Amino acid sequence: MVVISRTYNHINFISNMTVVLPVDIRHAIAEYPTRERDECRLIVADRKTGTIEHRIFKDILEYFDEKDVLVLNNSKVFPARVFGEKEKTGAKIEIFLLRELDKEQRLWDAIVEPARKIRIGNKLYFGDEEPIVAEVIDNTTSRGRTIRFLPDDDDNEEFEKKLRRLGQTPLPKYIKREPIKDDEENYQTIYAKHEGAVAAPTAGLHFSKHLLKRLEIKGTHLPEITLHVGIGTFDPVGVEDISKHRMHNEQLTITENVAQLVNEAKDNRKKVCAVGTTVMRGLESSVSAKNKLLPFDGWTNKFIYPPHNFSIANCMITNFHVPKSTLLMMVSAFAGVKFTKKIYKEALNENYRFYSYGDAMLIL
User: Fold this and answer.
1) pLDDT tens-digit profile of 206-231?
2) C-alpha span between 56 and 206 (Å, rounded)
3) Cα separation of 276 and 317, whole Å?
4) Do residues 201 and 333 both lie within one domain?
5) What is the span of the domain harbouring residue 91?
6) 220: which strand partners?
7) 132 within 8 A of 166, measured Cβ to Cβ
8) Where are the alpha helices (DSSP H) in 99-255?
9) Residues 207 and 153 in one domain
10) What's the total number of domains in the chain?
11) Residues 6+ apart with CB under 8 A from 57
12) In the predicted model, is pLDDT for residue 3 greater than 60?
């Protein structure tokens, strides 16, 4: 009976969260970021009081004190979208590079579109002058492929530079405009260091250098983890029982120093704020039996949905997410389903901007 009841709740949750947002919210999707990173709008939602405030993002300074901790994700987006042609036919194709499998062999896991036109053994050409040539060597999913870039006269470092010059910033599909040069900088946090993500940890896009410096001066700690965001972040949950949804694996690194700093803040009852759903997933992926953060170096497919007892962070910063997404489900688990509905309804009524380039919320 317990299992049946739990499954029923999960099914109800999917249908209930669908009505958080109207069917058509294209008017609310942000096509461009705000001119200044830290001047987007900010909802401050207090779980204890159930109250909502409307602020500007740089006002988060008022909510964090000395020895509080804001955990950042320093993953860096690489230009994962590359356009080319199929051999012989010249058909236009697009590959979305997911992750490098073998540097020496130049093997990549990639999504190739249109998938129905691509077969094992097909050669793909990218670039007009001295084109890069790739061969499809395996099918990993219905859309996914393993591709091998064929040898040329360049060493691996030069080859990767050439590949990145051909690539475009992988903006989410719900942004309908063409990428522009500014996206290379805008769709990247200012503290991005370790390349490997195909989507930006968008909650971090709102931090400016000036805001980070003011937080440091105030004595707030800003430790960094690395979680390379994968294409699965855009996958909607397509099953009725959300407990059966499977997350993609994403590479995660949490150092000993970061774990120690976070645990000290917990011991001293300070704020530990996850800057984004990627950080929250990372922190919840490495928890000891005593609810302490552990160092981690590996892969995580942690899926957080209601009900969930959070062990590390006691507040979070996040954007406004897509319906039926795992990101919205995590926020609902943290803020509570009813309060999340209230927040989203308020954001729509007040014309907040949604999704990657949109406005933010601070959940206390």
Assistant:
1) 999 999 999 999 999 999 999 999 87
2) 10
3) 5
4) yes
5) 81-166
6) none
7) yes
8) 156-166, 183-186, 209-218
9) no
10) 2
11) 37, 38, 39, 40, 41, 42, 206, 211, 359, 360
12) no
**Domain check: are 127 and 195 in the same one?**
no
What does the pLDDT look like over 14-37, one tens digit per residue? 545 544 555 567 788 999 999 999
pLDDT tens-digit readout, 271-294: 999 999 999 999 999 999 999 999
The position carrying tokens 């697009």 is 94
Q: Kindly state the tokens that stand for 285.
A: 């992926």
pTM of the model: 0.89
Residue at a domain's end among 166, 197, 216:
166
- For residues 57 and 40, the answer to whether their CB atoms sit within 8 Å is yes
pLDDT at 56 over 60: yes
Q: What is the mean pLDDT of the chain?
A: 88
Q: Which residues of 25-36 are buried (b: 16+ CB within 10 A; e: fewer)?
A: beebbbeebbee
Give CA separation, 67 vs 150, 267, 268, 283, in Å: 51, 11, 9, 18
In CATH, what number is assigned to the domain containing residue 278?
A: 3.40.1780.10
Contacts of 244 (CB under 8 A, 6+ apart): none
CB atoms within 10 A of CB 100: 16
Look up residue 86 and give its two tokens.
Answer: 């199929």
Between vectors from CA 150 to CA 144 and to CA 155, what angle results, nearest 5°?
Answer: 120
Task: DSSP for 223-246, please give it.
Answer: -EEEE---GGGGPBP-SSSGGG--
Residue recorded with tokens 């499998």: 101
Q: Which pair of tokens denotes residue 89? A: 């036919």
Residues 118 and 63 in one domain: no
Residue 133 lies in a domain: yes
106 shares its domain with 238:
no
CB atoms within 10 A of CB 65: 12
Residue 129 sits in the same domain as residue 97: yes
